[in-house]
Amino acid sequence: MIEIVELPELVCIGYEIEAERQELPALMPGLWDRLFAADTGATSFLEVSSEAEEGRFRRLVGFLAARSTEIPDGMTKLILPARRYLRLSHEGPLSGIASGFQRIHDHAATTGQKTGDLKLDFGYTPGFTDTRHELHVALEPQPLLLG
């Protein structure tokens, strides 16, 4: 079931890259390996995706943290403001995550909701086990209508 959720401000810490879409499949496994090898104390991980500019995409693989968390060497802190998202729970193989995001985009188009380019994928674990993932696609802010 796809639902609208409001997430609070999120502080994400991790490794970030910017690359062309076709480069991502070769680059992402190494980024995840670096994250899982780092001594962060985190047990739950996420991927933050956005379009940096036309044809180039930004990915951050990391974990949620408090604002005051020290940033480990080589990592980046990304603060996402509170906002609304469309959310879908994905149960099954990791290979099905892309189709889960497509379902969210199809739902938004069918229901007339405008989405942004920000996507969140919570649920990664070392070893890439087929665990439950929470997929989120950001909704564009709605204009305030004064009547």
From TrEMBL:
<dbReference type="InterPro" id="IPR011256">
    <property type="entry name" value="Reg_factor_effector_dom_sf"/>
</dbReference>
<dbReference type="Pfam" id="PF14526">
    <property type="entry name" value="Cass2"/>
</dbReference>
<protein>
    <submittedName>
        <fullName>Effector binding domain-containing protein</fullName>
    </submittedName>
</protein>
<dbReference type="InterPro" id="IPR029441">
    <property type="entry name" value="Cass2"/>
</dbReference>
<feature type="domain" description="AraC effector-binding">
    <location>
        <begin position="1"/>
        <end position="140"/>
    </location>
</feature>
<dbReference type="InterPro" id="IPR010499">
    <property type="entry name" value="AraC_E-bd"/>
</dbReference>
